[in-house]
Amino acid sequence: MLAQTPPMGWNTWNTFASNINEQLIMESADAMVKNGYKDAGYEYIVIDDCWSLRQRDENGRLVADPEKFPHGMKHVADYVHSLGLKFGMYSCAGVRTCADFPGSFDHEYIDAQTFASWGVDFLKYDFCYFPSNANCKNRYLTMSMALRASGRDILFSACNWGVQEPWNWMRGIGVHMYRSTGDIVDTFKSQTDILESQIGNFNSNGPGCFNDLDMLTVGMFGKGNVGIEQCEWIKEEDKSIPTIEMYKHQFMFWCLCGSPLMMGGDIRNMSEEAHKLLTNKNLIAINQDEEARPITRIPGDNTCVSYLKMLSGGEFAIGSFNKASFEKHISILAEEIGIPANSGMKIEAYDCETGEHYGTFADIIRISVEKFGARILRCKLVK
Fold this sequence. Notes:
Layout: E1 8-11, H1 13-16, H2 22-34, H3 37-40, E2 44-46, H4 73-82, E3 86-92, H5 108-118, E4 122-126, H6 136-148, E5 155-159, E6 177-179, H7 188-197, E7 210-212, H8 244-257, E8 261-263, H9 272-278, H10 281-287, E9 295-298, E10 304-310, E11 316-322, E12 328-333, E13 346-351, E14 357-361, E15 364-369, E16 374-382
Parallel strand pairs: 1-2, 1-8, 2-3, 3-4, 4-5, 5-6, 6-7
Antiparallel strand pairs: 9-10, 10-11, 11-16, 12-15, 13-14, 13-16
């Protein structure tokens, strides 16, 4: 099955936007292997928008920009595959892509065949320039069928920004992951806005199809295409460069809720602390748990919100996420996560980030969370 667990990889858009070329993709693929991201579970190298010529050829096919990709896309795909990685590309359900290149509207089958011939393993499918009289659900279904008819297994990553409540139907039409939010930018407010907008939409998460919270901005520190140095429209009060604590808040939530983990920073030059976070095997294990269950909110503090995630093997995780500018100390009643006092059971907890034993609790779990930070506890029941 494609996407048995949330897909993991890297995408060009957040950092590079249109500044992409063959050399960048190959260097990033090299970095994926050399810097340990592949060993951590990341496998897709995905080229986003701006890779093609402005018009199709005389046969109606998409053409890679020869200045950016002089050896063609199959050459790039073959190089990515030679490293044991998978290759992803971008198109759009509309007439044009978001950056005004040819979209796949009315060209779904020929484009799917083209992608398959190049050795594509992953397709991100956007929603710009979509005709108002067209049917959104039908057009995503059409590309889903086109990919199935292409003769190659291609993971379908749909991105329709939440139009027509996609969490209710994307799984049913064969999509493997879907974006139902606007684009993320590299600010704490952006990541928490996305987080809060999707709390009620994770019940369709499960093996084969996952709600995508957008590419991670971990490690960008204000630079790149979606960094505050480029996004002039960001309000002044939101223009603070995220701290590593804020990135922990983001990465831990993406892991806990089962979002795909698609890195958006420059993996060739990631800071040591961001690299350590992105490759944390304990956090990734929560994201990649084989049961792929959605989260449920635990009653309690509205500033430092906590969630429960059931895991395989009889374990469970508790994640607490602090939006406050000061450390929070919260208490979670065991009763509120299904463990009453008369059960005779205790909760043995381990800090997911460090792997260290956090404590054994009976009726109340006490958790401290640093400002703008997060903590995930991996737990099991003991007598």
